[in-house]
Amino acid sequence: MISIIGSGLVGSSIAFLCAANAIDDIILLNRTKSKAIGEALDISNAIPKNSDITIKGTDDYSEISNSKIIVITASTGVYLKNRNEMIDAQVKMIRNIANEIKKNCKSPIVLIISNPVDVLTYFFIKETGFSRNNVIGIASALDSSRFRYLLSKKIGINQSQISDAFVLGEHGDSMVPVFSNTKIDGKNVLTIINSSQKIEITEEIRDYWKSLRNFKSRSQFGISKNTFDVIYSILNNQSLLSPTSILLEGEYNQKNVCMGVLTTIDSKGISKIHQSELDESEKKSLDHSAQIIRNNIESI
Questions:
Q1: Sequence ranges of the domains in the chain
Q2: Residue pLDDT, tens place only, 31-53
Q3: Angle at CA of residue 86, ends 82 and 92, nearest 5°
């Protein structure tokens, strides 16, 4: 069973993808019960006719007890300037959710979407004591999708021609797109773009959410699809290479901080943390990003 805490744009979009692909039973949990019920009633009509999965809306945490995967998309509000502006309220929220999950579900794999995702992933682990391999912040995969899109637009190619384009670090203003490993038809991207274009793309990735909000209230489909991919890989034990926010214990010379690094995901959750080869400027940027997250954690 998949339980999704938060039935807003992102939570309901993830539920829709899970239902339409009939991958498992779904619980939609929301503090406003009628919202969860309404979304479940709508999404139930997307379940394939030959499927026996179910979807239910509720505000009762006891309903999540049999969950293999729990996805947290809940929020206390909508951020306008940066992902940290509601950090105190968001940390309070994640602590409350963490305690409800710990009380009602013994050993789920937890996917955290709520922002600031790196900080909330950290506090969720500290509150529950769950294994770091089973608490996964989902955001750097979205940033990497945006990296590929912006590269394809800048160079004038299809995204399918781009490989190994990953974004590491904070899901925020210090995120680090790793150009040194990115390839276009097998050729390193730094032989194709110049330093000015590299800076432009970096700034555009970091500000993508702001640009998007010029046209709609906030993003939902990109993060929902990236989250669905993780859910699918866990339930079907299919290895997925993806950057995720995880508690570091010495990797990248960082400890006691969660940030986006390249990982392999399967039925166990995080089965491997990859130590990506970075150039010197990327190493410095990643160290800086880790410190920004650590400062935000220590501000609580």
A1: 2-137
A2: 999 999 999 999 999 999 999 99
A3: 145
CB hemisphere CA count around 23 (13 angstroms): 20
* Structure tokens belonging to residue 7: 């039935």
Phi-psi map region of 169: left, alpha, beta (phi>0 left; psi -120 to 50 alpha): left
- Give me the pLDDT at residue 78, please: 77
* CA neighbor of 8 nearest in space, from 28, 24, 27, 22: 28
Q: What is residue 181's DSSP assignment?
A: G
CA distances from 164 to 43, 193, 207, 267 (A): 35, 16, 21, 23
DSSP string, 238-268: --EEEEEEEEEESGGG-EEEEEEEEEEEETT
CA distances to 42, 63, 222, 242, 291 from 57, rounded to whole Å, are 11, 10, 23, 30, 39
Q: What percent of the chain has pLDDT over 70?
A: 100
Helical residues (DSSP H) of the chain, grouped into ranges = 9-20, 33-43, 87-104, 117-128, 140-155, 195-206, 208-212, 221-236, 280-298
Architecture of 2-137 per CATH? 3-Layer(aba) Sandwich (3.40)
For 222, phi then psi, to 5°, come to: -65, -50
- Mean pLDDT within 64-78: 94
Inter-residue contact 36 to 48 (CB < 8 Å): no
Q: What percent of the chain has pLDDT over 90?
A: 93
- C-alpha 136/C-alpha 152 separation (Å) is 28
Q: What DSSP assignment string belongs to 185-244?
A: TTEEGGGTS-HHHHHHHHHHHHTHHHHHTTTSS---HHHHHHHHHHHHHHHHT--EEEEE
Which of these, 200, 80, 83, 221, lies nearest to 147 by C-alpha position? 200
Strand order in the sheet with 135-137: 55-58, 26-29, 2-5, 69-72, 109-112, 135-137, 240-249, 255-266, 269-273
Q: What is the identity of the amino acid at 129?
A: G
DSSP 3-state of 272 = strand
